[in-house]
Amino acid sequence: MKKYLNAIIVLIAFHSINVISQDDVEEIVVSSAFIDTSEINNPLYVIDGSEFSDGATTSLGDAIDEYLGVSIADYGAAVGQPIIRGMSGPRVKILKNGVVNRDVSGLGVDHLNDVDLHDISQVEIVKGPSSLLYANGTIGGIINIVDDCISALNYELPEISVGYETQSVNDGNAENFNFKNNINGFNVNFGYKNIDFGNYDIPSGAILHEEEDHDDHDDHDEDEHHDEDMGFLNNSDYAVEATKFGISKVGDWGYVGFSVDNLESVYGIPFHGDEHGDEHGDEHGDEHGDEEEHDEHGEERIFSTTDSESFTIKGSYNINGSLINKIDFNYRDSDYSLTEAHEEEEHHEEEEHDEEEEHEEHAPTVFMNEAVEYGATFDISNDSSTQKVVVNFVDEDNSIVGEEAFMNPANSKEFTIGYYLSKDIGIYDLDVGFRHDQIERSGSVSEEEHGDHHDDDHGDDHGDEHGDEHGEVDYYNIDDSTNSFAVTLGRSLTDNLGVSLGYASVERLPSSIELFMNGPHMATGRFEVGDPNLNSETSNNFDITFNFDNGDFYAYASFYITDVDNYIALIDEEEDHMDEEEHHEDEDEHHEDEDEHHEDEHDDHGHGNLIHANYMQEDAEFDGYEIEFGRSFDLGSGELALSFGRDVVNAEFTDGHNVPRINPARNIYSLVYTQDDLLFKLMLKDVEKQNDFGEGETATDSYQMLNTRLTKTFNAIGNGELKVSLFANNLLDEVARNHSSFVKDEVPLPGRNYGLKFNLTF
Question: Which domains does the chain have, with CATH numbers?
């Protein structure tokens, strides 16, 4: 409690973003730590919270995948890492109410984002040059989730709402409850949501059966084939329980409040790499050789459990002085843990226990993150310009304990000072931002010979005896600074046409994973090795955007080029394009007998079936565009809106090779009909085939995703209302694989999904 009291005394924070979209698409009112202008001349989406509350419950990435320039790296239904303009991982920051969400999603592609999309006001997506104004290293952009748990305005009336949802694709359901009221001058907000989804159905033909997969399983080929064709993806289930509670006090002086958030989840991991090679596979082959030994799902249960708690203080104090107008402040203390565990299937006969003991159960792995962040935004605006100065502090600890502890404990400390200016200069609108970040990352790497890393009995003692097992440990303390700058110049060419030109130079210090990673990462099927000597990435982004709107017709086009010096990528050792000679020496052998090549290669490295991969640097160039146009029609009884959008991103290293896992071009068609309290939406997402794949990848087929939603609002008790939504996703039951996913071949997207959702508010 002492640290919370200290935070109140300090009264400092970083980024409080509230963006309100107007009826016109191009008109966006922004009020944030950096931006406060009637029009922002950068690509920005402001998505109303009803888009999430009325549609099917999904991961964050899946919920925003239909917006131009935004895609997803999925890992089953629970995990959807957002991608912005081909950039992912630490280059895209997720924020909650303007403060970076510090979970462990950056430590593994199979880790979900710790966000609650229930009862939110809006989601803001900032792409391109201006994203650096919100968080450091945001070469791709930021996604900010906004709610009013700490309300800056007094609640006028008490409000209670209850809701329920059911989905067919996973035989799942969800419930929610919310309460808001002003009690004795204090705004009180309480929210609860519970999600329970089973394994999701997959379209017929989504699972491919390779002949070589069954070479050692002749006795149960027929049975295994039957199990895999059952029509669902094993370990694709997930359950979430989220609560939040907030109190605030509002006055002429400003407002102040606090909130407590808790989110717990359990979700399956549909793919998990195997580091133990043929021996492990043989054990499973013997263990599951008889039909009686298969349970309903026929496979090992692999799952993760998460538990996160955060305490936030937020507010604003009006000074109205000669220099400082007001101070926005924020403090957040967050604790996050994720436990990854294996659970052997239940056996039906006592005689099988001997084999079960021979095949030792995997020990769990625990990922933990503790972070404290606080800062302040000083508004020093005057009559001629908007000016703000930002100060921010972060202290973050990462640790991994257990069998798959692929990184030793690491600590990051960050100090930020930033400046923002918005000013009209004649016929031009000028926005300028600068930030300086002083960052210190501390960590260690256990020395080892990779060829000796995994012997036959490696498994269970990897995590707890990490340091002792691998001998000497090299410690590193990386203390460096980054400077980032962005400028946007906008002009109205006509009453209906506007153009803006943006430039940004963003520096990003390597993440702890990129620096200190050194171990088996089952989620990617690789033995990943970082490099403490990596240099900072430096991106130079050019962005030009056109907006046209005459009331009935609108058009939007944005073109960008991003050159990244020292781009950090995970490169498979056997296909390292940075060493062409070595690659070509092994190419003939690879094509002659691919399976034997990989088996021998993994044995040489001692990594079982894992591919050896290194975090390496090479200059890269990203370029692409987003275009959208639409027309609205007044039908008398209602309004019909039609739109078409297309986004394209290309990414190559300077040697001509493609950057891996870049999403293909997409065409998005939309029809929306509104009439009083009725809304009907039909959306077709046409994803093209990806032939421009990186080394170690394969092409990904095209697919079409047809989604629809019908929402109707009815009058209820008193002044209450009942909102009912019917939705259907993947109506065509398409076999779809996401090229950006590490596990696209093993984990197809869900099949056809029908659902019902209602919410009663009174």
Answer: 2-761 (2.40.170.20)
